Amino acid sequence: MASTPPGQRRQQILVALAEMLEQPKGEKITTAALARKLEFSEAALYRHFASKAQMFEGLIDFIEASVFGVINQIMEKQASGVAQVRDIISMLLQFSASNPGMTRVLTGDALVGEDERLQQRMNQLHERIELALRQALRLATTEGYGHEDDISARAAVLLAYVIGRWHRYAKSGFKLDPSHDTALHIALLL
């Protein structure tokens, strides 16, 4: 039987970690529990990741690449600023619905008690999302929507809405779809 290539083993570890984060109870994940789930030793985990924090960083890297890859596509393809805002928010909520374990990382719940720099990275991710929303709203003002003075406040409210939906989804044990009624909510917010 051939051994698993290192990159594939790293991916298996991250997938298992994300699956463990999908558990509604949201208990703290230990490397021992992760190793048991994967059916190999903790030492094997540490051959691929120097620490549990590095495992979470791998999940954050995935989130950043996924989310900002799509945001960039939206901004390139959508000519309308309002459509960009709508599509970005919809995508963020759909990403959460499709990736419950990642939602606990996005809200910071999974990072409580972990290395502080992980929460700082999530804060930076939120700031980057807010920046993308500000850019889209700035474009919307050139189309006659809203006022230049409102852009920062609107972007902050929209981000707070998204984060609130993520939290509600996680706190419901992943039962309340965060993307439910998104179009109506966005229309009310805009």
Automatic annotation (TrEMBL):
Transmembrane is among the record's keywords: no
Domain of life: Bacteria
GO molecular function, one term: DNA-binding transcription factor activity
Record key words, sorted: Coiled coil, DNA-binding
Domain (HTH tetR-type): residue spans on this chain: 7-67
DNA-binding region: 30-49
PROSITE patterns: HTH_TETR_2 (PS50977)
PANTHER family referenced in this protein's UniProt entry, alphabetically: HTH-TYPE TRANSCRIPTIONAL REGULATOR RUTR, NUCLEOID OCCLUSION FACTOR SLMA
Protein known as: Nucleoid occlusion factor SlmA
Naturally occurring in which organism (per UniProt): Pseudoduganella ginsengisoli
Gene: slmA
